[in-house]
Amino acid sequence: MRPRIVLHIFRKDLVETLRDRRTVVMAFVVPALIYPLLFTLLGSVATDKRGELERTQARIGAWGPVPEDTLRAVEQQARAEIVDRRAQPPPEPEAEARRLVTSKKVHVVLLTPPDSSGPSIPVRVLADSTNVDSDAMERRVSRALTEHGAEILRRRMTALGQDAAAATPLDVREDDLADAARRGASFAAALLPYLLLVLVATSGFYAALDLTAGEKERGTLQTLLTAPVRSVEIVAGKYLAVLALTLAATVCNLGSIALTLSRATAAMETGARFSLGLSSAGAIFLTVLPAALLIVALLMAVGVLARSYREGQSYLMPILLLVMVAGFASFLPGAELTPGTALVPLLNVTLLVHDILVGKAGATQVTVVWAVSLAWAVLGILLAARVFQTEQVLLSGEKPWRDVLSPGVRAGRALTPGNALSFAAVLLVLSFYGSALVEPRGGVVALILASQLGFFLVPSLLWCRLFRVPLREALQLRWPTRRGWAATVLLAAGGWSVGAVAWEQLLRFPGARAYSDWLGELLGKQGQLGLGTALLLVALLPAVAEEATFRGVVLAGLRRSGSRWIAVVGSALVFGLFHVNPYHVLAATAVGLLLGWVALESGSILPGMLIHLVNNGAQVLFDRIPGLGDRLQSPWVLALALSSTAAGLLLVRRSRRPAPEEPPGPAPVSLASP
Amino acid sequence: MIEARGLSKRYGEVVAASDVSFTVSTGEVVGLLGPNGAGKTTVLRMLAGVLTPTSGEVRVAGHGTEGEAFQLKRALGFLTGDTALYQRLTPREVLRYFGRLHDIPEAALAPRIEALVARFRLTEFADRQCGKLSAGQKQRANIARAFIHDPPALILDEPTTALDVVTGRFLLGAFREARAAGKAILLSTHVLGDAEALCDRVILLHRGRVLDQGTIAEVCARAGARTLTDAFLARVGDEVAA
How far is B191 from chain A (nearest CA, A)? Predict the structure, then answer.
């Protein structure tokens, strides 16, 4: 894949999309107008209605021997007028009361059965809860009755020579612990996740439709296919254009919703206040990002199956409905983010956005949902890429799904970028749920063994076998050149400094310090593991298993994208993502960049294994030998180590052996290649 | 320059093209003639590297589709009759876009675009969105797009369909100029008058198979007809009757 060609396609598609008035109106203008209008209109209607009810005199029916003083009290305290006074209740009082409420002759009927007497008189309040006016007046009348009842009780107590206060043995008062901001957040948390997901889908809907089915219908997709471009470049450019538009629309919408909710809650009588801070908005955006990646991929993959714009609308509608159902979860009471719901695409994002808004989400939850969502997004993107590589789909074939699902274009005897990312997605799910099962039962040692062997090394070997890729090729099992070894020695001597420097910077954040302490414990600082065991588990095993996985299978697949940068950065990001904790992700990504570059340039996995071994081993020793870490991490030693690393990186460039067996890149025009 | 060797394309039981072979040499215009559903578009798509043949081989300027598809596409200009242009881009933007996809350096691209704008008389509407152009203006912009990388071979699929006489004649003139400049042109058309006026040789295609090929005189002689239309009807009519 050539980034400059992807950029040309992206720019052209974005320009064309932004010139489509319908797309721009649907993505930016409508949402910008609809929230303020909707909330203003609804708020205005609600306020008007509330005012009208407050001003309106309650019309009351009083049937049977309702005490006269009670009626006077209701008239005064509930601002009511007795409009239907009957000494005897009708034979079917409920039906008659319903008829009168429906015909708006009364709001509420007070009913006392005939022959009621004694110290306790039954009074039924007949009202229709489905009628707004009747419901509101029922609350007003009931409140008046309760207060009147309390007043009678006080009078009776006084008459009996008792303290009137004894009539109120418990003076109950309700105080809401949630402050205005939390009440506002709770209100927003019910609405915002749903709105955000639906907005992402609707923002991308027309753009995806236009750039897939629309282009097919207009015949421009075929014109594009006659140019020297790969189908993967076409899908990447189009995907990025739709994604950019979707994300831009999402940001605008998020701002619009936040401002509207802020004003709407300020106008509410509940005392709730909502304001979306920059950090929360950023966290929500980052949470929605992988959901947007998945939704856009699905819209593209399904949209291109359609042969016309109209057909595309029918095809894409179910995706919109799915998104709405997932978003609806935020309205459901009791729906929570659990390890189970974290696996469900889109639903997990809805629940996490909810938790972020109410302040319940922690860094681990965010990372897990992000990682799982990203894995789903990768699968969605792979699906889109596969659909775009099916020539009959792009040329408006009769049965597009049959062609997509047929094994005709399936890769064989070589790992591809899609294949590598699928592998990473499978491993991510496997290691996440596998760890959750192993950790509580087996402890740290079992967890490391299971992770390194069960989640990394064995799956990597099986994957190569499944796709009939020789291990020597996939894992780059080659002896480096002398220059490669020299570079390896320099990098092993100084490479640990990259992680150390990155880690030192990250420790400025409080969350990273807590994580570092936990990691120190894991490494045996607290005496859980012996030094040899710690070195075996934390240094040797990861050096072999993780290198085979990330600089082996993943890098081998990404290399066939045709871009060295995509291969190195992609494999580093995947490597980083597996370290779950956000701080560790950053440090591991930095180390992954170094190891990926070395593997690519040396043409061998062995230098990376040695550097990884020394790097992790150094971390164990830093924690075990008092003062060693401080001595080695002094500015002079770090400078020396970084210099050694820089020299190693320079030396490792083009140090690989000439490899006649090196697999060629993918055929440049994939539609025409077998 | 353009070579098809035993090209076949099957969709399950349906045979869209069967053992199609022909060549188009430098400075030659060859007409690919056939009724609707004859397989012309399938053959052209295989030649353009858009569709993978079930069997057979394609070569354009010496390049095949396997491993050399980029070189093949760079040697080809492809034009269809359904005026497939981006509705919300201007002709100048379309030319720039395809120039970039063909990796033409920016410094060379601007003068190249201006030369094509002048040559195909696009000046008046070069900065108007394609969706607002007439069919003739779109097709002139489209042929400029096919020429943007100055390919040695052209594949033209019904290029004059639905065009008025003036624009049709303008395009035929442009194709003659291209032939004079040494380009190899494969022209698929329903308009047999265009084929008679322009083609050095013709290929009669029906039900995915080549019925006959040669100069117009040779094809007419073999069919016992005086005109290409009579020859076409005689051969295709025979097939339909059979």
Answer: 22
Nearest CB among A20, A222, A228 relative to B70 is that of A228
* A397 → chain B, closest CA residue: B11
**Per-residue model confidence as pLDDT tens digits over A204-243:** 888 888 888 888 888 788 888 888 888 778 888 988 999 9
A331 DSSP assignment: G
- Predicted pLDDT at A231: 77
Q: Do A669 and B65 touch (CB under 8 A)?
A: yes
Contacts of B3 (CB under 8 A, 6+ apart): B22, B23, B24, B57, B58, B59, B60
User: What's the predicted TM-score (pTM) here?
Assistant: 0.63
B77 strand-pairing partners: B154
Shortest distance between the Cα of B117 and any Cα of chain A, in A, equals 19
- Side-by-side strand order, sheet with B55-60: B14-24, B2-11, B55-60
- Partners of residue B80 in chain A, C-beta under 8 Å: 219, 222-223
Work out the average pLDDT over B213-231: 84
Q: Within an 8 Å CB–CB cutoff, is residue A308 touching chain B?
A: no
CA distance A311 to A218: 14
Chain B partners within 8 Å of A225 (Cβ): 48, 50
**pLDDT tens-digit series, residues A368-421:** 788 888 877 877 777 777 777 766 666 655 555 555 555 444 444 567 777 788
Q: If 0-12 CB within 10 Å is exposed, 13-18 middle and 19+ buried, where does residue A79 land?
A: middle
Chain B environment of A222 (Cβ under 8 Å): 45, 50, 80, 84
The pLDDT of residue A319 is above 50: yes
Pick from A9, A220, A222: CB nearest B50: A222
| Burial track B63-93 (b if 16+ CB lie within 10 A, e otherwise) | bbbeebbbbbbbbbbbbbbbbbbbbbbbbbb
Task: Inform me whether the C-beta atom of residue A395 falls under 8 Å from chain B C-beta atoms.
Answer: yes
Which value does ipTM take for this structure? 0.86
Q: What is d(CA B135, CA A385) in angstroms, rounded to the nearest whole number?
A: 34
**Mean pLDDT for all residues in chain A:** 79
